[in-house]
Structure formats: C-alpha cells, structure tokens
Amino acid sequence: MITIVTGTDTGVGKTVATAALAVRCGSGAVAVKPAQTGVGPDTPDVAVIERLAGCAVAEFTRLADPLAPDTAARLRGVEIPEVAEHADRIRELARTHQAVLVEGSGGLLVRLDRRGGTLLDLAADLARDQDVRVLVVTRLGLGTLNHTELTVTALRSRGIEPAGLVVGSAPDRPGLAEQRNRVELPRVTGVPIVLEIPGDAALVTPEEFRAALV
Question: Among 38, 42, 108, 159, which one is most buried in terms of CB atoms within 10 A?
Fold first, then answer.
C-alpha cells in the first residue's frame, strides 16, 4: 500500500501526521520525502518522522532555500528529478516494504520539479499500477473549509477519491470555529476525518508518541 500524505497548505502538520500513520502501519513501513526544502539548522522532516515513528525513511531531493521545490531549484539554477523519477523510486520501495508513506511539500499543487509536476501528478502516476490512497492533512480553524474543499476537488478532478482527512494539529481548547469545523469538514467535502493529532504531539517522547497511537 502506498499512502500519499498531502496538505491544504504548508505548516498544517503533515510531518507529524506521516509519523503517526507510520506507527499505525507497523514495522514494515518506510516514509518518503520526495523533495525537502529549507534544510538548514532545523531538523529535516524525515528525521522528525524517524525519531517519532522509528521507521525507515528516504529523502530524494534536498534544497537549502525554504521555498517550493521548483522555485528553490530555479533560484539556484540546479536540476532536480522529475515526478516520474520519484514515482519509479517509490515503486521500488513498495516492492520491499509493506507500507510506503509519501509526504508532499506544502499543498497538493506545489511544483515538485522544473516541468511543473506536482504531488497530484505523482499520485496519479502511481495509481496507474499501484494500490494508492491519499490522505489530506488539514486545520480546524477559519479558512479550512475553503482550502480543504479545493484540495479534495483537485484530487477528484483526476479520478482520485481521498481516503480521509487528518487534523494535523488539534487544539487543546477549540474555539467556536474549531468545534463547528469538526462537523463541517466531513459535511462539505464528503470525506471523513480519520485521525486527529494533538497540537503538542511532536513534543512528547517517541515512546509516548507511539504508545498513544497503538
């Protein structure tokens, strides 16, 4: 099984969500980041996933500037792999692992290569011959209904039905918008919320993180 983890925006909690899903998939999982940008003194996403979930990880492309992969590559005048190359490498991983989790960069239509290939293109490519599900990581706050509907609509435009919504950072004390959007998100998208991750999930020990998800 290949699981594509996309988000309605950057900073919605995709990395911690990917780690949580990897824990639930068990020891045969590998988490993949096709394109990592903004790597400096901060810990890259795959290292966060590896620490929290204890699973194997892979990173295909690394760019220093905190920009979309296509933009970061153009800024420095460097060539980066095309989406089709990412798809082939993910297929190879799927042959040797029970579960492959692919974390996108930013939102669904962020360009991963210099030809305009996106995570949506990657999902569609893999879905031609693989068992693929797509999960959408979203927020509960104001603006999320529009962003989430746009993401779900884009997926359906390519014949991909989202398998579920994941709340990437659920607040301890939800306000009115957060309370109502727990109900509204499934209603307006037709996609269920399958997992909610507490906002402080990344701050606990790996042992506590894993125990909470068993």
Answer: 108
| Residues annotated within a binding site for ATP | 11-16, 45, 103-106, 168-169
* Positions at the binding site for Mg(2+): 15, 45, 103
pLDDT band at 128; cut points 50, 70, 90 = very high
pTM (two decimals): 0.93
At 137, which helix (H) or strand (E)? strand 132-138
User: Which residues have CB under 8 Å from 25's CB, separation 6+?
Assistant: 1, 3, 55, 98, 99, 101
- Active site (catalytic) residues: 33
Residues facing 134 on adjacent strands:
4
Quick check: helix, strand or coil at residue 13? Answer: coil
Specify binding-site residues for substrate.
37
Cα torsion 189, 16, 7, 90 to 10°: value is -110
What is the number of residues in the chain?
Answer: 214
| Residue 144 and residue 8 in contact, taking contact as beta carbons nearer than 8 Å | yes
Q: Which of 92-96, 115-119, 147-151, 206-210 has the least mean pLDDT?
A: 206-210
Q: Determine the Cα–Cα distance for residues 153 and 17; give it in Å rounded to an integer.
A: 21
